[in-house]
Write a structure and sequence with these properties.
Elements lengths: L3 E6 L5 H9 L3 E6 L4 E3 L5 E3 L2 H8 L4 E2 L7 H9 L4 E5 L7 H4 L6 E5 L7 E2 L2 H7 L4 E8 L9 E8 L6 H25 L14 E2 L15 H10 L6 E7 L2 E13 L14 E3 L4 E9 L5 E2 H7 L10
Parallel strand pairs: 1-2, 1-6, 2-5, 6-7, 8-11
Antiparallel strand pairs: 3-4, 7-9, 9-10, 12-13, 13-15, 14-15, 15-16
Helix pairs in contact: 1-6, 5-7
Amino acid sequence: MALRIIFMGTPDFSVPTLRSLVDAGHEIAAVYTQPPRPGGRRGLDLQKSPVHQAAELLGLTVHTPVNFKDPEERTLFKAINADVAVVVAYGLLLPVEVLQATRLGCYNGHASLLPRWRGAAPIQRAIMAGDEKTGMMVMRMEKGLDTGPIALTSEVAIEPEMTAGELHDRLMLVGARTMADAMHRLEAGDLPLTPQPEEGVLYAAKIDKSETRIDFSRPAAEVHNHIRGLSPFPGAWFEAEINGRPERIKVLRSGLADGNGEPGTVLDDHLTVACANGAVRLTRLQKAGGKPLEATEFLRGTPLARGTRIG
């Protein structure tokens, strides 16, 4: 017997989980996603979220409340009479009334190994911290921020050169399989719940623009992790003087390299840059308004000679 599910999600990350639940034969009674936002080339067109678009293609009913402060929205949610709500990157705070409005509660797919990296940016923070593994966890939601008991865990290795974008795409698919498995076990009545440990709690704060500039005075490993943890968005960047004026340049990929020197100094003709301890090689870059380029191609149009200071 299939579960009657309310699915709640917004970005691309959520879409594979929605599709996996449909493919598993569950009844998706309603889909909740954030309202259409201004977008398009000039920012004038209202664009539906990726989940909204996917739900419409699947012929599902879509709701887009601004929030759940309106009692009518909470009443409508409860009236759907679902067995369970599945939440993946929805982006809105759910009040207790919503968390308790389904027969079996709300289950969240979260992209970290809780209690490490609770909060908004677990993928980026894990890479920026140099973590060697992360994963997808299915947890039963409580009032606190990512504090509920854990049902299932799927670990994923973070490879040394992996960017946040690459890890996002891997976790997106792992999360879909993990949530489908969790709902199958919930339906069968054998989904375990284990309280989170009280030790090891870390919060993954939303990435702030103020922390995106590359600081070459840090050790090379930290600089490398900073770059890949912010790639492709929002992108770590440095400033260099190009044709007599300062220009901001994003770095989308890097690698650890041999070399020593004053931090921020270009050490060779291949964009190896000295850090406080060791060096990094900048291998994929993007100028403002330009397209991403491999370092060799980038240097043809933007010479950054040996001895140049950047930062």
